[in-house]
Amino acid sequence: MIIGAGLAGLTAAYVLRRHGISAVILEREPEIGASWLRRHPQLTLNTHRDLSALPGARYPEGTGAFPKRDAVVRHLQAFAQEHAFDIRHGVTVSSVTRDDGGSFRIVSEDGVLHAAHVIMAVGRDTERRLPAWAGLEDYEGDIRHAADFGHASDYAGRSVLVVGGGNSGFDILNHISRIKTGPVWFSVRRGPSVLPKRLFRFAVHRLSPVMQALPTPLVDRMIAATQYLAFGHLSRLGFPEGAHDAATRLVRDKIAIPVDDGAMAAIRSEQIRVVRGVRAFERNAVLLEDDSRLTPDSVIVATGYGTSALADDEGRGTPGLWHMGLTPSLTSFFRQTEREATDIARAIAATPGRSPVNSGASEH
C-alpha cells in the first residue's frame, strides 16, 4: 500500500512495478496534482527540467528549463494516466498500525485495509509552520504563510514584509521583485547561502549531479564560491554574516538551498531592504530584533513546512513500514525519490516469503 499519489507515490508505484510488485495508492485529493495547484500560480521549479522528471518520462517539447507549476501538474497527471496505477482518490488515512497477524491495518473514513508493506509518500510540505512569536495572536494586520502567497500582482502598491531567508522566502521575493510594490522588507536571522538560477547564462543546477558525488565540505566551499562570484559579499547588501554551510545543512537538517531569480538584484537596487529578524508582534506593528518597528500592509511568513502526523509516526524503523519523499538533495526531489523507491523495492523484493505491498483485504 502506498499512501500519497504525489511525485513520491507515483515514483514508488512505478519502481515497485518494475520489480514485479503491485501496489494500491491511497490519495486524499480528488485528482493528481491538486496540492500543487493550491500553491501560487507563479511557482517554478528551482531544479532543471532534465533532472526534474518522473522515471522514464520527459516533459513535452517547449517546456522551459525550469518547469512552472502547471507544467509539473500536467507531467504528474500524464504519468499516472500512462501507467494506469490503481489510485483510490478521496481516501484520507487516519492511522497505520500493526495488526495481530503482523500485517498493517490502514484506517480511513472509507473503511480499513490490510497490507504486508506500507510506503508513506505523503510529502514534506503538507503542514504550515509559524514561529510562536509573542503578540502574534493579537496582531490585526494581514499575515499569511508563504503557502498562501497567492498571485504576485495582489501586492502591487502594497508594503510587504517577508520573514525567512530560506527557499520559500527567496521564491516569494523573486516574484515580488517583478511587481511595482510599496516598500518591501526581507527579515533574516542569518546570512543565507543562495545560488543564482543562472550564472553567465548557464543554468547552475545542471552541475548538481557532479556536486552530489563530492564530499559535503567541498560542496559547501563550491557553493560559497559560486555565491560570491554571483553576488559579492552579502554583508554589503545588509545581510548578517553567513556560515557558508549550505550543503551541510541540506544533508544534516534537510534545509533546501535558496535560488535567486531576481531578488538579489532588487536588494542591490534597494527595491527590497534587508532587515533583522522578527522579535514580536504588536497590535499594528512588527517589532524587530534591533528594536525597530515596521507597519507593513502584508506580512508573509516563509519559515518552512512540516510533514503530516503520518510521516512523523513513531513507527519509523518498523519492518515493512517505509517513509520516502522527505529528503531534499542537490539534484532534485524527483531524483532523490527514485533512489529511495529503488532501495525500498529491492528490500521488499528480497524479503523472505514476500507478500505484495497490497494484500487486497479490506473491512468496513
From TrEMBL:
It comes from the Bacteria. It holds the Pfam family Pyr_redox_3. GO terms for cellular component: cytosol. GO terms for molecular function: flavin adenine dinucleotide binding; monooxygenase activity; NADP binding. The keyword Transmembrane helix does not apply. Signal peptide: none annotated. Keywords: Oxidoreductase. This is NAD(P)/FAD-dependent oxidoreductase. It comes from Rhizobium quercicola.
